[in-house]
Amino acid sequence: MKGWNGRILRVDLTKGMAAAEEYSKDFAKRFVGGRGFAVKLLWDELAPGVDPLSPANMLIFATGPLTGHVIPNSGKMVVAAKSPLTGGYGDGNLGSWASVNLRKAGLDAIVVTGRSEKPVYLHVENDEYTINDASDLWGLDSFQAEAKLKEKHGRAAGVLLIGPSGENLCRVSTVVSQEGRAGGRPGMGAVMGSKNLKAVVIRGTKALSAHDIDELNRLGKEGFDVILEKQNYKWWKRQGTMAILEWCQEAETLPTHNFREGVFDEADAINGYSMENATVKQKGCPNCNMTCGNVVLNVDGAESELDYENVAMLGSNIGIGDLKQIATLNRMCDELGLDTIGAGACIAFAMEASEKGLIDHKISWSDYEGSKTLLEDLAYMRGLGATLGLGTTAAAEKIGGGASDFTIQVKGLECSAYDCHLCPGMALSFGTSPIGAHHKDAWVISWEISSGTRTEYNPEKADKVIEFQRIRGGMFESLVTCRFPWIELGFELDHYPVYFKAATGVETSLDELWELGDRIYALIRAFWVREYGDAWGRLMDYPPKRWFDEPTTQGSLAGSSLDREKYDGLLQAYYDKRGWDDRGIPTKATMKKLALSSEAAELAKHVELR
Known about the structure:
The protein is an alpha+beta fold. It has three domains: about 5-205, Aldehyde Ferredoxin Oxidoreductase,  A, domain 1 (4-Layer Sandwich), CATH 3.60.9; about 245-410, Aldehyde Ferredoxin Oxidoreductase Protein, subunit A, domain 2 (Orthogonal Bundle); about 425-605, Aldehyde Ferredoxin Oxidoreductase Protein, subunit A, domain 3 (Orthogonal Bundle), CATH 1.10.599.10. Helices cover about 40% and strands about 15% of the residues. The chain is built from 26 helices and 17 strands. The protein has a six-stranded mixed sheet with strand order 2-1-6-3-4-5. Strands 8-7-12-9 form a four-stranded mixed sheet, sandwiched between helices. A hairpin with a 2-residue loop joins strand 7 and strand 8 (about 130-135). Helix 2 packs across helix 19, helix 19 crosses helix 22 (about 510-530) and helix 19 (about 460-480) crosses helix 24.
């Protein structure tokens, strides 16, 4: 196969074995790579009901046929597993030189099972695979451990690793790389820690396979040039995702005080302009000429890479309006291996629980020192952190007293930084995200507000959510490349079928890539339903209770809230358009149409399939 390496590295840590195996052309054709590979492997090989933190769970690192080629923003990979935070399918993507090195080592994915008796790290050097002792790395933060590994294996090696939070099985821990890049919000770091796997170090020097490498390189260079000429390029280079903060404040969607409000009094002190004035350098992923990592100095003078999500969740959402303090909290998360979104949500939840007298731990809004302490406690699962480290859903169940009413999550995954009291389309996006409440798959909030339909619950919003899911969560997550050139600069989607043909020799169209997205989403949904069985229902696709029952009290849109009955109608429109039944389960006809008949037969063993 051209374009694909055609090999997956299988690692069994219980047996201490690692060997590469080939996969079929049919597997590549039907699922392409990245998220597609991950969900198919989990569906086929993971027994239903497996404890996500048991040796049986599978930790998957997967690239796609475009990963690593010199085309715009191709330095991405997907990390996936059954989630210990949600109990369903979990994944995330991150940009890292590990992605490029994996492909140049002649592999498309790594699948890790089992559990080592002692801490280890996996080392991949082209066709050599070794499992090495990591006792001297265990307990180190991610920055320290990566520095030691690069000192040993060279600066060119790609490193994926966990911090103390993953080691201690905190459910809001991620896989991190390159001092600030992270992926796997639904607890992928905890899965890695449960296997006593501290790191994966990859060095590849082989030439990448392609159907027409000269044409692909020509197209890639052309694509980079096109990006440089895009109207918004210079603005993007100035602020990156941080430009969103000012926009969210103006649109009254900036999460404030655990998503009670959509406006923050100190927003100007932490917005993109404030970040611009503090930026000391920029960082980006491999093969990217629109770097989005803006680095500022924190309270201690150390570097911290900021973007919108971490500033909003560790800033306005917990009441902190000092950019240097936010940068300190952000760097702590990166060092400890904590998801900045999940960690910010946990702190905000704790602040509200403390305010309501539901916990003995005292922490108030804007408590910077208290937030630092709580981040440490989260990572080491001690004190209140041991409860919060299970995620806000489980924490609320333990705390009681109505705490579940102010968990801001869907399916157990904490919402990323967009308040949706008056954004039903974005609420639907959170509700139907394949991993729980995350913006990555369908960021429709900008379209929803700019289209003038913010207060409407029309079926067009379901169409837009599905359109974005097909593009962002289907095509980009399987090829695997970054969505930013398209969504932020308007880089035309027509480039990607052309890149795909030059890489693989396979003629495809955007419509066929949308069908791929539908196939992936149907199988992810089937995975969730198989895990939950009769406990599954449409309420799993509902946004947080607060957005329905507790209207905002500040700003020009004070009094805003979602309408539960109208949301349910919008959700049904989404199901109808996807060919899913009123429980949100793909029908037999839909599964057959998407070439998932055998998967449908398996799903029918666990739930009635209509």
